[in-house]
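Issue: copy button drops trailing tokens. Both records pasted manually instead:
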Amino acid sequence: MKNDIKQNGQQQLETTQPAANEANADYDPHEHRNVKNPTTNLQTFAHFLKASIGTGVLAMPSAFANAGYVNGLVLTLVIGIIAVHCLHILINSMYELCKRKRVPYLTFSEAMTIGFQEGPPFLKCIVPIATPFVDGFLAFYHFGICCVYVVFVAESIKQIVDEHLTVLDVRIHMCFLLVPLFIIYSIRNLRLLAPFSSAANLLLLVGFGVILYYIFDDLPPISERKAVEDISKLPIFFGTVLFALEAVGVILAIEENMETPKAYLKPLGIMNLGMTIVLSIYVVLGFFGYWKYGDKALGSITLNIPQQEILAQITKILFAITTWISYALQGYVTANIIWNKYLQKRIKDTNKHVLFELLVRAAIVLLTFCCAVAIPDLSLFLSLVGAFCLSILGLIFPALLQICVQYHTGYGPWKIRLTKNLLLVAFGAFGGIIGTYVSIVEIVEAYK
């Protein structure tokens, strides 16, 4: 039966494909986009760096502590290259589907739904749930990032307040953050956030400079550190590095809002240049941070630098400010999905849309606060969110989408692209399952 379906589909495709290809060749989705507040290449580059360099980079020494400096160096580069490749095949596949359907833009979930419709027959059963499934994972992932950011900012403020005023539980500091978080989160478009991202990037450069100063001050012999850690710790490393490197929803959102989207995927385009900078920072901070602090590296390296020194305290404030700005950028995806895709159409009175969107955003801020209060351990939260969500969003879904998009056009000699994508699916599934399991076990152990 399956063979009959596939044969009939291929016969139908043979009669329509040439004409369809000619029509598709004349249609460029990029030229038909109508973006209200498009961002320039420079603004997009600033958003890309800010979206990709968050609290995850500060967790890299802790990640290396779960891998060893040799394993950490090699595996970070490998995971980084795989992550960038998956982003490329995801955006290229979405672009190809836009050409076929002659539409300016498809969201991630819409592209996955159409891909499953046009892909192998056995995947068609997923079509009815594809859109809410992908939207749900995207919204949950960026919601999880926001939870981590609440913890990070609260921890940074706590160290300074503990030193100069009084010792308070980190959860109390989270309460003080509710109003500032809602203020930044009430900014509803990326163009208005661009100046904040640019300022945050400058603060990050200063902060990284200070952290490297502390790291290189009196480095111990590297022989005191492990080149290769026990394999049982690698799942935590995998989840943390994935969390640090991937920001799928924001990366797609900033590409959607570009004035010149063709500049995004060029060989020397925004994504490749941005990820080269990001990966270099991650490797340097992870390698030398682990060299300096070893197994004592905490969930954020800012928690390792001296608490009493004024320079260190200023650095913690800088990172707290940049993370506060990043909260709005990462949370943009969650609010965009929940409000624009599912709730806005239910409110008939358009005059009340702004009010209701702000109420939705306030609810998201409150929920991230509640989750952060429940699990205030930064490193475990990082690993859980990274392993569970990003193995699916950043590895499995892009590979599946390309398999579906190329189903009728072919996978190249010896089906090499099919083999490659199946390996990506297997890698994402294995890493995600093991990483999620280990992270949950660690959280349960930590809070017994």
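Record 2 (pasted manually too):
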Amino acid sequence: MDVKTSLPTATSVIGAYDDDGHVKRTGTLWSAVAHIITAVIGSGLLSLAWSTSQLGWIGGPVAFLCFAIITCFFISPFFITGKRNYSYMAAVRVNHGSELFPIPLRTWLAGSLQVLTLYGTSCAYVLTTANSLRAIQKSNCSQDNGNEETCGFGDGYFMFIFGAMQVLLSQIPNFHNIQWLSILAAIMSFAYAFIGMGLSIGQVKENGHAEGSIEGIPTSSGMEKLWLIAQALGDIAFSYPFSVILIEIQDTLKSPPPENVTMKRASTISVIITTFFYLCCGCFGYAAFGNDTPGNLLAGFAHYNKHWLVDFSNACIVIHLVGAYQVYSQPLFANVENWLRFKFPDSEFANRTYYLKLPLLPAFPLNFLRLTFRTAYVASTTGIAMIFPYFNQILGVLAGIIYYPLSIYFPVEMYLSKGNIEEWTAKWTMLRTSSIVGFLVGLFTLIGSIEGIVSAKLS
């Protein structure tokens, strides 16, 4: 094994870096689509059948289409031509502040919420992966006539395995180097989405009719129905936005054509694809189970005679989340490491790169800052998932808090600033009104999520 060290030099910039000194961008339209789909289409897709069952045959599909349109509308400010930004926080910083909400405070808030989103999602992925691996194990155990006590390892073991895998993958230098992982993850998301749709269609054929009704699952009271609708809308609303990592994805794209043009096309294609899968899984799942629609679509097929197919879909979820963890973590890695390198420009620990050359393999760049920080990060997310096994429920509340500022408020403020929109014009009034409506919807779903957790704990 050969070990070589290097620090950045002027000659190394030629050919390997873009005109702004950043790593040469090689991303394309389809790599951006893969990144977005990997980030957006998660295992939460399997809960959308339950959301549809709460809203009914009219409310469910209408909600999906409305949130798709809203997503396209509120990410449009990111595509206005202007100064190149490298992160969401940087985009917020370059726009004008106000006396009530000055730039430093707004930048700090945007950065804090983005970090909370990325970190919380990483913790949730550790939990979700362990659940899928556990489901595979239990399925195989039941086939061998085992029971809960004899089914081998617990969730903590699977979380540790996932964490160890992420320690290795986290040493991939940056977002530009994980295109292959995003493409693989996106393929896996398509796979388990198609399996869920196929199993649901098969169940409808077996039933001989489509289950469900216009008003959705009946409840004992109007208030209970209201809270369930709030939770359903929350699930749908939080399954669409990707603005928190949009600029980081855009920063991977090569030019020409202009990065913002390519990213706009990628975003539109991705929203169309995700809406198609959301509608299919949500509607076919509801048609298959009606009032008995489970929270996780695959759980409805736990006793399906072809257990291997359900196991395979869970395996696809695991592989997908392996890639999704990196898509959400790499922007946070970059922000922290770039800040440390800026603060300590003469530190070899932060800036020196060691190239490890193993036989038959390309040289691998190793940096001690990257090794220690990212390992500690993965260990912390894994540890939190082990300590708080109900973190997914808490994340639903956090998502309710984060949804409005990151997906609606800041994009609207950027649009008003970049577009020089005058106050009280028709466009200004429309944007301000839509922002207020977004706040009310976010508040409604947040209250519904809190009520859902309280009800679950009391039941």
